[in-house]
Amino acid sequence: MKFNHFSSPVSAEIPGFTIKWAEIGDFVGAYEACAAGVNHEKEFTVTPDNACPVEHLIYVISGTARVEYLDGEPEMLEAGDLAWVRKGHMPYVITDFEMIEFSRKSEHNGMIADLVEAGLFPPDSGPRPAG
Q: Is 0.85 surpassed by the pTM of this model?
Protein backbone atom coordinates (compact mmCIF):
# COMPACT_ATOMS: atom_id res chain seq x y z
CA MET A 1 0.00 0.00 0.00
CA LYS A 2 1.14 3.52 -0.66
CA PHE A 3 -0.07 7.09 -0.37
CA ASN A 4 0.98 9.96 -2.61
CA HIS A 5 0.05 13.32 -1.15
CA PHE A 6 0.58 15.08 -4.49
CA SER A 7 -2.20 13.11 -6.22
CA SER A 8 -4.51 12.37 -3.26
CA PRO A 9 -7.69 14.38 -2.71
CA VAL A 10 -8.07 16.72 0.25
CA SER A 11 -9.62 14.84 3.19
CA ALA A 12 -10.49 17.86 5.32
CA GLU A 13 -10.02 21.59 5.15
CA ILE A 14 -10.70 24.24 7.77
CA PRO A 15 -9.35 27.80 7.70
CA GLY A 16 -5.55 27.69 7.57
CA PHE A 17 -5.38 23.88 7.67
CA THR A 18 -5.46 21.32 4.85
CA ILE A 19 -5.04 17.60 5.37
CA LYS A 20 -4.88 14.52 3.17
CA TRP A 21 -5.26 11.16 4.93
CA ALA A 22 -5.04 7.53 3.88
CA GLU A 23 -5.26 4.28 5.82
CA ILE A 24 -2.07 2.27 5.44
CA GLY A 25 -2.31 -1.04 7.30
CA ASP A 26 -2.89 -0.30 11.00
CA PHE A 27 -1.90 3.34 10.56
CA VAL A 28 -3.19 6.54 9.05
CA GLY A 29 -0.66 8.38 6.92
CA ALA A 30 -1.26 12.09 6.48
CA TYR A 31 0.07 15.13 4.71
CA GLU A 32 -0.80 18.31 6.63
CA ALA A 33 -0.29 21.94 5.66
CA CYS A 34 -0.94 24.66 8.25
CA ALA A 35 -0.70 28.42 7.89
CA ALA A 36 1.35 30.48 10.33
CA GLY A 37 -0.65 31.27 13.45
CA VAL A 38 -2.88 28.19 13.30
CA ASN A 39 -3.60 26.29 16.48
CA HIS A 40 -6.20 23.64 17.23
CA GLU A 41 -7.49 24.88 20.58
CA LYS A 42 -11.06 25.04 19.23
CA GLU A 43 -10.96 21.50 17.83
CA PHE A 44 -9.47 19.99 20.96
CA THR A 45 -12.19 21.36 23.25
CA VAL A 46 -13.96 18.01 22.70
CA THR A 47 -10.97 15.85 23.62
CA PRO A 48 -9.68 14.77 27.03
CA ASP A 49 -7.69 17.53 28.75
CA ASN A 50 -8.33 19.84 25.74
CA ALA A 51 -5.29 18.35 24.00
CA CYS A 52 -4.66 15.89 21.18
CA PRO A 53 -5.22 12.36 22.54
CA VAL A 54 -3.31 10.70 19.70
CA GLU A 55 0.42 10.07 19.41
CA HIS A 56 2.10 10.69 16.06
CA LEU A 57 5.36 10.04 14.30
CA ILE A 58 6.02 13.04 12.07
CA TYR A 59 8.49 14.33 9.54
CA VAL A 60 8.55 18.11 9.12
CA ILE A 61 8.85 19.12 5.46
CA SER A 62 8.93 22.88 6.04
CA GLY A 63 8.19 25.52 8.63
CA THR A 64 8.28 25.76 12.42
CA ALA A 65 5.81 24.78 15.13
CA ARG A 66 5.83 24.66 18.92
CA VAL A 67 4.27 21.63 20.59
CA GLU A 68 3.18 22.00 24.19
CA TYR A 69 2.65 18.88 26.30
CA LEU A 70 0.40 18.45 29.31
CA ASP A 71 3.19 16.56 31.09
CA GLY A 72 6.36 18.34 30.12
CA GLU A 73 8.39 21.00 28.41
CA PRO A 74 7.36 22.45 25.03
CA GLU A 75 9.25 21.34 21.97
CA MET A 76 10.11 23.25 18.80
CA LEU A 77 9.77 21.39 15.51
CA GLU A 78 11.36 22.62 12.29
CA ALA A 79 12.07 21.50 8.74
CA GLY A 80 14.01 18.26 8.62
CA ASP A 81 12.91 17.03 12.07
CA LEU A 82 11.66 13.49 12.57
CA ALA A 83 9.77 13.44 15.85
CA TRP A 84 7.51 11.38 18.05
CA VAL A 85 4.72 13.61 19.36
CA ARG A 86 3.13 11.91 22.35
CA LYS A 87 -0.49 12.00 23.52
CA GLY A 88 -1.60 15.09 25.40
CA HIS A 89 -0.14 17.76 23.12
CA MET A 90 -1.23 21.02 21.55
CA PRO A 91 0.51 22.31 18.39
CA TYR A 92 1.02 26.00 17.63
CA VAL A 93 2.18 26.87 14.10
CA ILE A 94 4.87 29.59 14.06
CA THR A 95 5.59 29.72 10.31
CA ASP A 96 3.76 28.04 7.43
CA PHE A 97 4.17 24.35 8.21
CA GLU A 98 4.05 21.12 6.19
CA MET A 99 4.52 17.64 7.57
CA ILE A 100 3.98 13.95 7.00
CA GLU A 101 2.38 12.19 9.96
CA PHE A 102 1.69 8.59 10.96
CA SER A 103 -0.83 7.70 13.68
CA ARG A 104 -2.48 4.50 14.89
CA LYS A 105 -5.65 4.07 12.86
CA SER A 106 -7.92 3.24 15.83
CA GLU A 107 -6.84 6.32 17.83
CA HIS A 108 -6.86 8.70 14.87
CA ASN A 109 -10.21 7.64 13.44
CA GLY A 110 -11.87 7.84 16.87
CA MET A 111 -10.65 11.39 17.38
CA ILE A 112 -11.77 12.47 13.89
CA ALA A 113 -15.21 10.94 14.49
CA ASP A 114 -15.49 13.01 17.69
CA LEU A 115 -14.50 16.19 15.82
CA VAL A 116 -17.02 15.51 13.04
CA GLU A 117 -19.78 14.75 15.57
CA ALA A 118 -19.07 18.04 17.35
CA GLY A 119 -19.29 19.93 14.04
CA LEU A 120 -15.63 20.96 14.17
CA PHE A 121 -14.59 19.03 11.05
CA PRO A 122 -16.52 18.58 7.78
CA PRO A 123 -18.90 15.57 7.77
CA ASP A 124 -17.05 13.76 4.99
CA SER A 125 -13.68 13.97 6.77
CA GLY A 126 -11.69 10.87 7.35
CA PRO A 127 -9.04 8.65 5.92
CA ARG A 128 -9.61 6.56 2.84
CA PRO A 129 -7.87 3.29 2.03
CA ALA A 130 -4.49 3.83 0.36
CA GLY A 131 -4.14 2.77 -3.26
A: yes
